[in-house]
Design goal:
By secondary structure, the chain is of the alpha+beta class. It has seven helices and ten strands. Helix 6 runs antiparallel to helix 7.
Length: 307
Amino acid sequence: MRAGFNGLLLAGILVSLVLLSNPGYAEPAPSKITTSIYVYNIRSFDVTTGQYDIDFYLHFSWNPNEVPTNTSDQVASFDLMNGRIDSQKTITNDPGNIWLQVSGTFNKRVDLKDYPVDTQTMTIEIENSNLNNSNLVYVADTNESSLDKDVQVLGWVIKGWQIYTTDHYYPTFDETYTRIVYKMTISRYISILFKTVLPAMILFVIGLFAYLIPTGDLFERLGLLIAVVLGSFQHHLAVSGTIPPAPYLTLIDAIMVTNYITQGFIIAISIYLFRQEEERGIRLNKRMPFVTVALALIIFFLLWEFL
């Protein structure tokens, strides 16, 4: 009796193992949707708001025999996670093949720490509206995706682009969605340095010219230095007006603040040298340009590293 029971128990275990090992009883794998993005127009990029407008083609492709109907019916249902859809037109809607023409407005947080030599990114981030990554995953098509050669961003140089997938977890719903990301990297034209950094450097050098004026001619020195300080303020305001206010010092801010402190140092040292004996004043004055340049470099380094 016991032997028969043990035999039934062993048979039951073997049957359970066979059923569990059968793929038909395993949890179904998520449907893979190959996705490509072709950007053919960038209408604008506003660095003051972080807003940009992009027109692109979106292509979803899959094997109809491997994707359930309830999943394939929702492939074209998607959201722009970092923007909104302005318009959408279906070009092709065949089983396993959907082409869409999409226009969207996007937003990003602009990092201006390195202004005026900053690099920015523009992204298109897409998620399915209803299906999480247990039902649908995107596969980035790097061969079909591209950026049209005629696309331009006014005032910027397009350095490159890439497309990839990532997972985004929503703790409120305890769900993870796959996200397709198309990212473009842009940088400013080098010519902007001639409008921002070069004038600041010229003002700094003009301030150093004060050491060429005899130490006894204090008022001539002060006149030159005050003109340099006022010019620096005016240039700083003009440059700062082209970007939004930031809670940190940008590169051009660090340069201009260094300029202010340096010119203040030259004014203070000029008054000090004026009060010294002529021979001593002349001797110290010869060293001051080197001291001033070293001081400027130290101040700039401290501002840039810690502020």
